[in-house]
Amino acid sequence: MKRREFITLLGGVAAAPPFLAPLAAQAQPRDGMRRIGVLTGLSADDPEGQARRAAFLQGMAALGWTVSRDLKMDYRVAGRDPERYREYAQELVALRPDLLLAGGTPAVAALQAALQQVARRTVPVVFANATDPAGGGYVARLARPARNTTGFMNFEARFAWKWLELLKQIAPHVTRVAILRSETSTGTGQMEALQAARQRFGVELTSLGDHDTREIERGIAAFVHGPNDGLIVTSQLESIHREQLVTLAARYRLPAVYGFRRYVTEGGLISFGSDQVEPFRRAAAYVDRILNGERPIALPVQGPAKYELVLNMKTARALDFDVPASVLARADEVIE
Questions:
Q1: 151-170 residue pLDDT tens
Q2: Do residues 124 and 194 both lie within one domain?
Q3: How many CB atoms lie within 10 A of CB 191?
Q4: Residue 178 — φ and ψ, nearest 5°?
Q5: Which residues does residue 131 pair with via DSSP β-bridges, in sequence order?
Q6: 204 and 143 in one domain?
Q7: Number of structural domains, the chain?
Q8: Cα–Cα distance between 315 and 204 in angstroms, integer?
């Protein structure tokens, strides 16, 4: 394995502006207890969920906040169930929190809807790992959100074409590409970037839905026709169908590019995306600033601090792919 602090992938991807270092932690307790409601899709039993929760609490501790002393945390985990997102968002809003933390795009949507229902639109919402928040209508603009909501994206739509470029580098014969994406309005920017790049890479794109496991399996089975097929799993699809997608790609011998590292550590071919834990640590700084009086409108939505390329050589060999030296040289991590 080899690691780099920053990468420039296939012609160069400039990292997002570095996040400002947090202010020194306050030593003394604050006046009164502050309440934060957290809505997410990953439970504390999930290792990734544990890491994200720990990163946020570590970030808050570094800024002088202590749970049970001046912070009360209320957690709700909705998985992938839209009804549970709605129900839990309403529960959290009913607790009258000082601030809401949203883990992922579905949580942002549910919390905003719940706040509108009870006319509490001024309660600030900070998100981590949201997809295309401007395209989804959750903020007006990235530079100046103009609502009660701000936070950190898991991927910048303008870089989605890099998935196509990477797929063509590792499998130049591919001319038909299935794009697995959410059927919601979020992530439209990613699809637009892929559509704009398809002629340059000489590929035909087919969009597949992800409503449930049966729809995914039927969609991929219907799409596959031969050796010129490939697959891109966008950064909208974080973790729910990982095992199924990796298994289907292997079954149909599809070269597949994923938006998250976890797919590759579990047998996927290659990923280009961002660290999904660090945004929760960065979110702590925004939470601190808002609880200390700043308005979300003054805090711009930020993209990932860095992007990572992860390659699974065992999977590449199983699929008989000859990985170009240029891709190997740019990899942040090579799984043998």
A1: 999 999 899 999 999 999 99
A2: no
A3: 19
A4: -90, 130
A5: 155
A6: no
A7: 2
A8: 25
Rounding to the nearest 10 degrees, give the CA dihedral for residues 115, 116, 122, 128: 50
Residues 149 and 166 in one domain: no
Would you list the DSSP string of 213-254? HHHHHHHHHHH--STTEEEEE-TT--STTHHHHHHHHHHTT-
Q: Residues 122, 264: one domain?
A: no
- Bridge-based pairing of strands 308-312 and 333-335 is parallel
Annotate 109-138 with b (16+ C-beta within 10 A) or e (fewer).
bbbbebbeeeeeeebbbbbbbbbbbbbbeb
Are 54 and 195 within one domain?
no
Q: Are 311 and 268 in contact (CB under 8 A)?
A: no
pLDDT digits (tens, 9 = 90+) for 268-299: 999 999 999 999 999 999 999 999 999 999 99
Whether 123 and 97 have beta carbons less than 8 Å apart is answered as yes
CA–CA separation, 244 and 219 (whole Å)? 13
**Residue 250 resides in a domain:** yes
What is the sign of the dihedral through the CA atoms of 12, 16, 20 and 22? negative
Average pLDDT value for residue range 236-245:
73
Structural domain range at position 287: 34-154+276-298
Tell me the CA distances in angstroms from 194 to 94, 157, 175, one per residue in order.
41, 9, 14
Give strand pairing partners of 333: 310
The β-bridge relationship of strands 270-273 and 308-312 is: antiparallel
Mean pLDDT lowest among 7-11, 122-126, 311-315: 7-11
The owner of tokens 């996927």 is: 268
CB contact at 8 A, 147 and 139: yes
Q: What is the CATH number of the domain that holds 269?
A: 3.40.50.2300
Does residue 197 sit in the same domain as residue 243?
Answer: yes
- Determine, yes or no, domain membership for 27: no
Vertex 53, ends 16 and 140: CA angle to 5°?
45
List the single range of 20-34, 191-205, 231-245 with lowest mean pLDDT: 20-34
115 lies in some domain: yes
Q: Is residue 7 part of a domain?
A: no
